[in-house]
Request: fold
Amino acid sequence: MKKFKLLLVLCICASFFLTTSCTRRIVDFTVISSKNCDVKGKKGQRVKGSDGTCALMYPEMKEALDRAIEQQPGADALIDGVIYYKSYYVYHKYEVEGTAISTK
Reply:
């Protein structure tokens, strides 16, 4: 009986930890950049960047944005994109997705 109770408690704890996550949509954007750029530009491919960290530190939205822009060589901005904040038990991250453009 003792083993059964212990197993039951472990199953409840495991199911709690496995189901405690969420994803929030932070913002939709038409044009977004952390770089200086002109709005006119040549469209590139759809890109995605993220920055995540454990619970003791905080992820950076700007870092996720920079990583997405840097996926496309020569790009300096994103259009038609979205930013997500994902939260798991001890891990948090920003995910940025959009179409890279080069305004140069």
Remarks:
- The helical segments are 2-19, 61-69.
